[in-house]
Amino acid sequence: MECAIRKWNITDAVDLARLLNNKKIMDNLRDGLPYPYTVKDAEDYIATMLSANPENTYAFAITLDEKVVGSIGVFRCENIHFRTAEMGYYIGEAYWGKGIMTSAVRQTCQYIFEHTDIIRIFAEPFGSNIASCRVLEKAGFQLEGLLRKNAVKNGRVLDMKMYALVKEDAE
Ligand SMILES: CC(C)(COP(=O)(O)OP(=O)(O)OC[C@H]1O[C@@H](n2cnc3c(N)ncnc32)[C@H](O)[C@@H]1OP(=O)(O)O)[C@@H](O)C(=O)NCCC(=O)NCCS
Q1: Can you tell me which atom of ligand 1 is nearest the CA of 98?
Q2: Is the pTM value of this prediction over 0.85?
Q3: Does some domain include residue 8?
Q4: Domain carrying residue 110
Q5: Which residues line ligand 1 (CB under 6 A)?
Q6: Which of 79, 84, 149, 157 is deepest in the core (most CB within 10 A)?
């Protein structure tokens, strides 16, 4: 299913709160997000993204027929890793399994490699997150390794997987 990516608008907060206010999504993300996730929380997130350094933070709403259905962000790392960036994403449960995230990941990575000096984009899904691993594989990421016992989520020790896409011709 063909989606689009675009910059956030503060008026997306209602849609964003509706999408993210879901334990099944939160259980696959890092800790730190409030639950329940309110419209005010969504407004704060969008405002933070809009005021962030545009050289380091690339945050997009994922839309389908102009409606916000998900979120994807690429965040530049620091120090010697300044040309590496971490990607994170989620899509509303009603839209899972339609190929939307695979398309959004492809579009986002193409944008980053065409418009920035970033040469490596990585993502670290939990080993148990088969859908996310599959998205990354379909979008051309390589599995570089298993990060054993790399996280504690909801009281459980979890493995994670390191996937990366590199700009092959970059110097
Ligand atoms: C992971 C997530 C982003 C996937 O988005 P999506 O739009 O449903 O992904 P796609 O439809 O593009 O691709 C999903 C793939 O996973 C496969 N899949 C999903 N669940 C699966 C399972 N339990 N076993 C095997 N394959 C599975 C689908 O069949 C599909 O692969 P296919 O096209 O080869 O059939 C979405 O489920 C989500 O937001 N989850 C919660 C948040 C999250 O996990 N974010 C990522 C953190 S790293």
Answers
A1: 11
A2: yes
A3: yes
A4: 4-166
A5: 25, 28-29, 89-91, 96-102, 123, 125, 129-132, 134-135
A6: 84
